[in-house]
């Protein structure tokens, strides 16, 4: 029995070591930071965020205030049994994390999700990946990547599902375990968040569920590293939604790099064909 346990422990350690090695070598953890820098330096990508900033800020302020008034003291009392005097600080961090998650869930469910799709597609267009975006929506001629986005041809990427919400609150008690529990919580969230930020990319590529799972599994370390950094950013209260946009930009930059160097020629040919069809349409009447 002891030999079996030792063998399983070695296998788990080997698998974790492999994931860590893949995560580091992929450098996918850099993309959330690249997303921030790219978003800040490309003003044309700001329009979806500007359109949603006021209701998101109001929602964030309301949820954060409510959470501190209602849940801070009970959670601090529970954490004090384990952490002692530092429970006040730990409980504040936990409430902020919970508030940020609720803000993201509410904002995405009510008004932000479509804006994130536009941000993802607009980033791809700005990186000359027009041919890829054309698989999921119309793209108009022009210079501003956001104004070029036309009618959606495929469904946008999935909103928060009940399963993901249940899992979040199921893993939440891990935060009551000092240090190690919080690290495990962030790792588990990151493992889920990484692939979810590429769900629009999978749709544009026309991947089936099985193909998506295989694609993700082959890059599990990279997606986990990307997701952990993205999760940490989105845990920041109120401004976490801002990082949801920059994470989306980072995901699009990663997708663009996966596609490799390209020219706008395929997109231009497609646009020329669409323009010709529109020109010929009246003459056929």
If you had to describe this structure to a student in words, what would you say it looks like?
With 285 residues, the chain is mainly α. The protein contains 12 helices and 2 strands, in the order H-H-H-H-H-E-E-H-H-H-H-H-H-H. It has helices at residues 2-26, 31-41, 47-83, 87-126, 130-133, 162-171, 180-196, 199-205, 209-217, 220-234, 240-259, 265-283, and strands spanning 137-139, 149-152. Strands 1-2 form a two-stranded antiparallel ribbon. 34% of the residues are buried.
**Number of helices, counting only DSSP H or I runs of 4 residues or more:** 12
Strand content: under 5%
Ends apart, CA distance between termini: 81 Å
Order of helices and strands: HHHHHEEHHHHHHH
Strand arrangement, largest sheet?
Answer: 1-2
Biggest sheet layout = 2 strands, antiparallel
Structural category: mainly alpha
Broad shape: globular
**Mean pLDDT score:** 81
What is the tally of beta strands?
Answer: 2
Please state the CA-atom Rg, rounded to the nearest Å: 22 Å
Unreliable spans are 263-285
Helix content: over 70%
């Amino acid at each position: 029995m002891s030999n079996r346990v030792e063998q399983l422990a070695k296998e788990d350690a080997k698998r974790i070591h492999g994931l860590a090695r893949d995560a580091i070598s992929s450098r996918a953890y850099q993309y959330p930071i690249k997303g921030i820098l790219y978003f800040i330096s490309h003003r044309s990508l700001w329009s979806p965020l500007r359109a949603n900033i006021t209701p998101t800020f109001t929602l964030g302020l309301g949820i954060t205030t409510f959470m501190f008034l209602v849940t801070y003291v009970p959670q601090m009392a529970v954490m004090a049994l384990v952490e002692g005097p530092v429970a006040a600080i730990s409980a504040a961090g936990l409430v902020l994390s919970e508030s940020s998650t609720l803000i993201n869930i509410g904002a995405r469910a009510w008004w932000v999700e479509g804006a994130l799709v536009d941000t993802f597609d607009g980033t791809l267009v700005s990186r000359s990946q027009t041919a890829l975006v054309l698989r999921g929506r119309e793209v108009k001629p022009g210079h501003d990547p956001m104004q070029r986005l036309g009618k959606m041809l495929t469904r946008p990427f999935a909103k928060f599902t009940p399963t993901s919400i249940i899992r979040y609150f199921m893993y939440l008690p891990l935060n009551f375990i000092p240090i190690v529990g919080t690290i495990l919580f962030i790792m588990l969230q990151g493992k889920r968040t990484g692939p979810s930020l590429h769900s629009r990319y999978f749709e544009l590529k026309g991947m089936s569920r099985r193909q998506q799972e295989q694609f993700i599994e082959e890059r599990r370390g990279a997606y986990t590293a990307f997701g952990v950094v993205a999760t940490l950013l989105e845990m920041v209260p109120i401004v976490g939604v801002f990082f949801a946009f920059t994470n989306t930009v980072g995901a699009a930059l990663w997708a663009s790099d996966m596609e490799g160097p390209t020219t706008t020629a395929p997109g231009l040919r497609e646009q020329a064909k669409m323009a010709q069809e529109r020109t010929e349409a009246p003459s056929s009447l």
